[in-house]
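Structure tokens please, single chain.
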Amino acid sequence: MKILIVGRVDSLIKSIAHRFYKEGNKVFILSDDELREPYYKNYKLDSLNYKYDYIFKNTHFDKVIYINHNIESSILLNILELSKTYETSQIIMVNLKNKSKEHILCENIFREFKRLYDINMSILYIDRVYGEVNLKEKEDIVLNIIKDVVDNKNKNYDNRLKNGYIHYLDVAEAVYLLSKYNINKEYYICGYELASDKDIYNLVLSTIKNKDIYTLEKINTKDFKEFKEDTNFYIKFSLSKEIITIYNKYINESNSTEKIKAIKKDKKQNKFIKVTKPYVENIGMFLIVCFISSFLSKNNSIFTIIDLKIIYIIVIGMMHGMKQSVIASILSCLLLILNQLSQGISIISIFVLSQSLVQMLMYVLLGIYTGYASDFKNNQIKELKRINEEKNSKYEFLEDIYNSTYEEKRELEEKVISSKDSFGKIYSYVKELDSLKPQYILRSSIDIMEEFLENNNISIYTLNNDYLRLNVKSNNKDFNPLKSIKINDLYEAKDKLLNKEIYINKNLNPKLPSMVAPIVKDNKIISIIMVDKIKFSKMNLYYQNLFKVIVSLIETSIIKAYNYEEATIKERYIDETIFLRKEYLKSALKVCEISKKEKKSDYTLLKVNMLNDINYLSKEISKCIRSTDLAGVCNNHVYIILNNTNKEESSIVKNRLLGKNLTVKIVDGVDEDD
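Here you go.
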């Protein structure tokens, strides 16, 4: 299923997207550029509405979830029009509390659109949301109050207006349930606790500053009792318990931000020190050599024997390599020249005297050799470190691959298990068919196949004497299958069915359904499942295999129910008649009422006067009704259930019964007071 989420509340969008993604749905997000998620396709939300037509045309979303908060009404109107044009099956509005004119306008547009068009549109009203949000989420009240407490800001918070705060993940679950059950209603939900801004401030203080426990006012959940009954929804998160988690996340993210800033600053300082340090040390040592050569060597005979410039060049070369050793050599040569000049020797004589030239040449060669040796040693150390780091990075890379593969394996396992078309998921749905009533199983089978096949053009027929009688169908006003079909009219599908095989309309014959499957009991066809108007893109082997698996599981449940009915026929029917006993008649009638309410099948109930000879009455009525119809006795009257027959069509059976001199009338239910 393809889900489009539209909104500007990033944390809520992420929560809803993740909930649908876990169920194996493809999620598309229409939001701001800041929201980037690797698992979802992201589109930019802006006022250029012409882009949205391209998105809808190329994707054909099954459901649209619209978060009504800080979005222009023009965008909403365009989304609704495109949803109608491209036949989106359901539109859900998550209506966050807001008093702005634009927000109220969007709400009114949504309601008016729902009134004008026959589209499944549901609204979920919410007071306030909270959770472990991004620090950039500026409008989150809980996060802003935590920031104020951490920064020691003592504000005057409002204590009059109280809201029912609900966690992002609880909202995501509620939205998913609305989608799952395809509900077309308006609901209000909130958390279990009611809180004003002042209450949250006191709660944060009591939680993070170890003060007395602050208790929030509890909410009476009767306000959303209907939603809980319709979807089995329950609140998982409590504001009082989650406040410490939100606080810890805020502190951790704040600390991480500060650490990153400090690290960047330290890096700049370290880089400057690293570049300037060799020059400073070189010049410092040179000045020391100059001082000793100029002042101490005159009074100390040892400095006249030892040439400090040689030691200086060697030390600098060993410490900092070629570049600094060459500089040291040049500085030593300059110092030698200055010393010679101070002794009265002319500059020309210095370069003529062989002793001075030899000494300067020695400084240069010594600097080059020492620097080269130092650089060679340092390069070897760097190379060994590089090899070691490379091996470590390879090890870390392999470890990361292992960890990511392991995590992906776990995620894939979870996704496969929880995806809607996994065998486990199919089995869990088919467990709902664990009933001993064939009519109930057939009605529920429609829901299951609609869920997995993503098709609302499904019908189930009962086969009797070469005629197919419609039993149940999808609740789709545009889908009106024939109530009776002769099996010979199925053309090439007939041969497949008689061979107990599934028929696939590969030739795209417009007179035949896309897929037809028989339900076989004791080597005899008892029912036939038909799927019509399948998209061409789904006419593939995967879809066919999925259809076969679901049909086989449904077949198992139906056969078990029929076996039970055969085993209990004496218990359910009055002896040697077609009449159900009172309790079984009411049970069958209840299933028919549910199917009619869900628009999966119709029925008409006839009330017939009782005769003294019940066996004679049974034989006469059996001649007037079909094999798919039911009859029973309740409080001295006979009731006939005409399956898939409206009041106008029931006149045929009614006239037949009147021809038998029986008193017949159409009733709405069994009269308990007879």
